Amino acid sequence: MAVEFVSIDALGASEGLEVDLRGWLYNKRRSKGLYFLMLRDGSGLLQCVVEDSQVDEESRQAAHHATQESALAVTGSVVRDARQVGGFEVRVTRLRLVGKADDYPITPKAHGVDFLLDRRHLWLRSRRQWAIMRVRNRVIMSIHEFFQERGFLQMDAPVLTENAVEGTSTLFSIDYFGQPAFLAQSGQLYGEAMAMAFGKIYTFGPTFRAEKSKTRRHLTEFWMIEPEMAFFDLDMNMELAEDFLVRIVRDAVRDCADELHVLGRDVEPLIRVQKPFPRLTYTEAVDLLRSDETADLLARRQEELMQEREDLESERTKIKKQYGQAKAWKKRKMDARDIEINARMAEIDEELRNIPVWTESVRSFQWGGDFGGSDETLLTWHFDRPIIVSHFPADVKAFYMKRDPEDDRIALGMDVLAPEGFGEVIGGGERASNLAFLERQVEAHGLPRDAFEWYLDLRRYGSVPHSGFGLGLERTVSWICRLNHIRETIPFPRLVGRLSP
């Protein structure tokens, strides 16, 4: 009969009982007749104590020969210990080496990003990646719960399309049985068709952008959540986006406290993600960017960064002085802290290099231009929560966006910008419902009329006001976890020049 084993995250129900566990050796240490084995099973970490006098020879040998990432079968009693990760440890009575691992290539020392990405299939086992992926999972569940509770129907848009949604310059093209086809940039146009059939729908699927961008905010393959709602105007759309983001963040803070702690995430900025979000028109946002207030913020930020850099340099000097006399366990902590300091100082140096560029950029920003990442960052510095910017110049928005009835230069679009420098996480707006207008737009943008006839049919047969938006899953996870680069938010990132593993 197969042995049923307990997962580490469920040990609280087994205090005082003997349990069977399965997992991999995260690390180990030896001290005075004891082996301390840190076991991971995907649900959490657990210290397992192997006492030489309390186990048989096979168990002692298993503990001795187990290497990092070796697979283990553990039997032992559960003991509460608030000092340990997860609040419990297991006193081992039997230990079996299921699969011994070769020398593991990823060690506690600092590795370069390319080294880790080349071994992404192994890097996922680290505690940091464990935390990020669990936050991602919770965000995904919150998304489905939010829409399902509000009567939305989850539907799927095709990945292969014959037409572009937001311009042809960022399409991946393929040969589809002799016919040109493209990987979808968005499911939105199909979402509109489904909304006309079912009222309120959302799609959740992969999207692709062939942008040759290497910024920390870009992937070539990512996941988008795109609701579309019949009879929704721009104001209703913004209200829904606001409720949506508040719900996602609330659930992550409530249910992923351990994971966010592992990541060192200060949750106070997330707790402040409450309604109402500040709302600005594009014109108001431009005025704010070019204001003396923004210039003052940049100057203060520069002073703060220089002071933080000085403090970190002092801390690093202190660590170097103490290192030679420190015990082995203390040196490991010092090494880990030194890695953190180096990473933070690299971020500070990058931002200090950017500040003069940003200062000049906002001084020269002209109405009608599209916001770049630095512009979005500076706008959010003025507020303590996400903001919504709306009523953009039509020239910087997609062809299907409805125009402002009071000013034809303006599109009824909106972006939700996350604070702390993370920028746009939601983009959307009210869709044009007038057939003649869309026909002119298709022609003006040089789009193939035949490929859009089905889309134009939506305006021929019962056209109504309707709206929608898209949320980038990876950008949202990056913000919630406060990651420096989006590549850690997806199990196997696809970047410019990276298609493996």
Q: Can you tell me about this structure?
A:
This protein is of the alpha+beta class and 501 residues long. The chain is 40% helix and 25% strand. It contains 15 helices and 17 strands. Strands 6, 10, 11, 12, 13, 14, 15, 16 and 17 form a nine-stranded mixed β-sheet that branches. α4 (127-149) crosses α15 (473-481). The longest helix has 37 residues, at 328-364. The protein is globular. 33% of the residues are buried. The model has no long low-confidence stretch (mean pLDDT 93).
Helix content class? 40-55%
Figure out the total of helices.
Answer: 15
For the terminal residues, how far apart are their CA atoms? 38 Å
Total strands: the figure is 17
Shape: globular
Low-confidence stretches: none
The secondary-structure class comes to alpha+beta
Secondary structure blueprint with pairings:
Elements: E1 18-31, E2 34-40, E3 45-51, H1 57-65, E4 71-80, E5 88-99, H2 113-118, H3 120-123, H4 127-149, E6 153-155, E7 160-161, E8 173-176, E9 179-183, H5 188-198, E10 200-208, E11 221-230, H6 234-255, H7 257-262, H8 268-271, E12 279-281, H9 282-289, H10 292-323, H11 328-364, H12 373-380, E13 387-393, E14 403-404, E15 407-418, E16 423-431, H13 435-444, H14 449-460, E17 466-472, H15 473-481
Parallel strand pairs: 3-5, 6-10, 12-13
Antiparallel strand pairs: 1-2, 1-4, 2-3, 4-5, 7-9, 8-9, 10-11, 11-17, 13-15, 14-15, 15-16, 16-17
In short:
With 501 residues, this protein is α+β, with helices and mostly antiparallel strands. It has helices spanning 57-65, 113-118, 120-123, 127-149, 188-198, 234-255, 257-262, 268-271, 282-289, 292-323, 328-364, 373-380, 435-444, 449-460, 473-481; strands at residues 18-31, 34-40, 45-51, 71-80, 88-99, 153-155, 160-161, 173-176, 179-183, 200-208, 221-230, 279-281, 387-393, 403-404, 407-418, 423-431, 466-472.
